[in-house]
Amino acid sequence: MTPSPNTTCTDLNSTVFVLVHGAWHGSWQWAATQRVLAGLGAASVAVDLPGHGFDASLPSGHLLPDRPGLLTERSPLADVTMDDCADAVLDTLRKVRRYRRVVLVAHSAGGGPASLAAERASELVDRIIYVSAFVPAGRPRFFDYLGAPENATARGQDLNLGDPEALGAVRIDPLSPDPSYVEELRQTHYHDTPTDRFDRWRSALIPDLPLAIPATPITLTAAQWGRIPRTFLRCAEDRAQPTAAQDLMIAEADRDMPDEPFTVRTLPGSHSPFAARPRELAEALVR
Question: How far apart are the first and last CA of the chain?
């Protein structure tokens, strides 16, 4: 596919996409999307948030049979802060600023660190795109939206293990031998990804999301974050974050920061378009 009539090759050649992953993932989540972006003429770089990716520290029993301590062992990522995560995004934004246009893209829980980074250095971001991602403009914590009535149909609550406060993390078990648990993980995040590919995806997930990411309040201002043009890519069949919850975040952000309202577009499928349809996701980003 060629770029949209509204996106010239010159625009793409002078644009870099900075990609921020969601919970339990890493920069690898974007690899297939990045290949399509490159084919369309767009540069991109994917960020590993602290405590994520292939270098993440794991609970000591995660790779052992029956994963001893899974319910009780404090996370090695418990001390990761929201500031740490925003700093990782800012570091990448500063490095790529030589491009004429920088587009910051966040998925899911990555919306928190990306938003805070954009708030702290709005001059480094020309547009911010949320892919079914947390937008802290109306409510300051991701947890505030997870408990909203609009999110009542969300799946995945049964995936969380142990006490997040005691663990210092929201923990899942991507290597679970329990078929019902694995199926719930698939149905929540990857229901439209072929089963064989899903098995590969889940084997790369880490078990811990540092608690700071969904629990730390973020303050955004009209003078900084609110002046950045923004787009929300809704995922129409999202079971992890239903469209009603996505629309609530959009509406509250536009209410509180009306000067640059969201441009809203809708993608078909699940919470994980980077796994199920990376070409459609990349084409939506370049538009």
Answer: 12
